[in-house]
Amino acid sequence: MAQMLIRNLDDDIKARLVRQAKMNGRSAEEEARTILRLALAPDEDNQPSGLGTQWAKAFSHLNFDFEVPRLGGNRLDIPNFNSSDYDP
Q: What was the pLDDT predicted at 56?
């Protein structure tokens, strides 16, 4: 297995890592490996997604019997308040 040395790590980050490791019953080194493994996992659950997708995953265990339509891709027109036709 490969090894890695991380230089210039903020003291606060290291302290938080150590605290989190203790809470999880792991060494700081194992906690760092776990964080990296989860953050870089190729599976779908760790990929960035929209808020609606996150909510759907969070509440999927409730087994709603209806489908919520997707709203993605809608264009939001932002008003131009600098135009001459703006009258407050």
A: 77
End-to-end CA distance of the chain: 66
Q: What is the pTM of this model?
A: 0.48
- On the question of pLDDT at 43 being above 80, the answer is no
User: Where do the structural domains in the chain lie, given as residue ranges?
Assistant: 11-62
Interior angle at CA 24, CA 21 and CA 14, nearest 5: 15
Measured CA distances, 69 to 10, 33, 56, 57, 66 (Å): 45, 39, 11, 15, 10
Token digits of residue 41: 């996992």
Q: Tens of pLDDT along 2-25?
A: 899 999 999 999 999 999 999 999
